[in-house]
Design a protein that fits this description.
The protein has one domain: P-loop containing nucleotide triphosphate hydrolases (Rossmann fold), CATH 3.40.50.300. 39% of the residues lie in helices and 20% in strands. The protein has 9 helices and 10 strands. Bound molecules: adenosine-5'-triphosphate (ATP) and magnesium ion (MG). It comes from Catenibacillus scindens.
């Protein structure tokens, strides 16, 4: 999957050199951070579209905020908004547990995409603190153990505070992207040590869809640009097409619990 195109060649020469994530074994968990308006939702959709269209894996989308960006997916059994998004996270976790307990070798990547993780947790902290704890524990476990099982998490988040992830599980993301302006605090949070050491903030003038990517948690931070998406309506229509043809989480969890099934 392409995370973005390398900035220098793209903005200077219009040449597209991709910065890639290698799904599923190498890069299982992806964190897409950035302030409001930095392009997370649209970029997230582009990632989803690529994964589904290139058959790189199966996805389920939990969108607690239920924003208009994803509205066209409403009604698909593999997309959930509001409280249903919370239930979807629990159901994905059940599936993950069944895969782990029964030592199922999933033939392909099965990932949960969570939109606005911070918004969800912040809301839960006020309304249902116990639920917040449960969500953090479940996602923490998937982050810690999902890699060998082909079970991944793709999260969008405004600020990647360590407090949003249980027991240091923030360290488990193999690809970290920050779109838009990155504060010096965010550089440190995201592990962009080299960028934090620079005197001038290279992200100061970044527009939506422009950002930094740290792949594998090591090496250089890449400056990337996400291509301008001119027809997000059509992209959503195609995502919906693929989502509607995927198995639902409950039947997958049932199959995993008995150790076999057509989807596994
Ligand atoms: N790749 C891109 N190229 C050009 N413009 C973009 C790109 N991505 C996003 N934008 C512009 O930025 C706007 C905000 O994008 P988006 O809604 O994805 O941001 P966000 O980070 O999800 O914001 P919020 O946190 O408020 O949900 C979009 O409406 C679009 O106009
Ligand atoms: Mg958004």
């Amino acid at each position: 999957m392409i995370l973005g195109y390398k900035r220098e060649a793209y903005s200077g020469l219009g040449i597209k050199i991709p910065a890639r994530a290698t799904l599923p074994k190498k890069h299982t968990h992806i964190l897409l951070a950035g302030k409001s308006g930095s392009g997370k939702s649209l970029t997230g959709l582009w990632y989803i579209w690529q994964i589904l269209r290139k058959h790189e894996g199966l996805l389920w989308i939990a969108d607690f905020k239920g924003g208009e960006e994803y509205e066209a997916l409403e009604g698909s059994r593999n997309y959930a908004s509001g409280q249903d998004a919370v239930d979807m996270i629990h159901r994905y976790y059940e599936f993950f547990c069944a895969v782990r307990q029964n030592r199922i070798r999933l033939p392909q990547y099965h990932a949960l995409f969570i939109e606005e993780w911070m918004g969800l947790l912040t809301w839960m902290e006020v309304k249902e603190p116990k639920e917040k704890k449960r969500l953090m524990a479940e996602t923490g476990e998937i982050l810690a153990l999902g890699r060998g099982l082909n079970c991944g998490l793709i999260l969008t988040i405004q600020r990647a505070d360590a407090a949003m992830f249980s027991n240091g599980s923030r360290e488990q993301f193999q690809c970290i992207i920050n779109l838009g302006r990155c504060t010096s605090e965010a550089f440190k949070m995201l592990g962009f040590a080299a960028a934090a050491a620079l005197e001038e903030n290279p992200t100061a003038a970044y527009k939506p869809g422009e950002g930094l990517a740290l792949i594998d948690g090591q090496g250089d931070v890449e400056e990337i640009i996400v291509p301008k998406i001119n027809n997000s309506g059509e992209m959503l229509r195609q995502i919906r097409y693929y989502l509607d043809r995927e198995p639902d989480l409950d039947s997958l969890a049932r199959e995993a619990a008995i150790g076999s099934g057509p989807g596994l």
